[in-house]
Design goal:
The chain is an all-alpha fold and 162 residues long. It is built from 4 helices and no strands. The protein is elongated.
Length: 162
Amino acid sequence: MCFAKILPDDIKKLNADMHQMIDEFTDTMKNEVSKPEQVESSMNDLEDKIKERILDTAKDRFQGQQPELTPLLEGETDAVRRRSNRPPVLEVQDPKTQEPEESFCDMVKRWFRAMMQRLQTWWQNFVAWLQKMVTFLWEKFESFCCSLAELLGSFFSTKESH
C-alpha cells in the first residue's frame, strides 16, 4: 500500500507557518495585559490554527494522489473549524488550576504544555484514522480488482465455449 509522502518543502512550509502562528500568539501575549480568559481563548485559537494547517497539508498531499480521501479530510477540517473535536483538557495537567505563587508566565507555559499534549494526542489519533482510511480504500480497490478479474475471466471463458 502506498502513502502519499509529504515532501521536504511541505514540511518546511508547515514548520514556518507553525512558527509564525506561535510568534503571533506570543506577540499577542506581550502586547496585551492578558487575563486568563484571553490567554485560554488565544491558545484555543492557536490550537485550532495548527490543526487546520496540518489538515491542509495532508489534504494538499492526498488530493493529487488519493483524491478519494479529500472529502474525508475536508470533513475533519470542518470539525476543527466547529471546535467540536477539542478534547477536554487533560485532568493531570488542568491549566485552570493555578499553582501557589505561580507567575503569569509560568501559568501560560504550563497551559502551553497542556495544549501541546492535546495536539500530540490529536495528531496520533489523526494519523491512526488516516491509516485506517487508506487501508480501507486499498482493500476496496483490491476487492474491485479481484471482482473485475473474475468478471473478465468468466466473460472470456464463456466466449471460448461458444
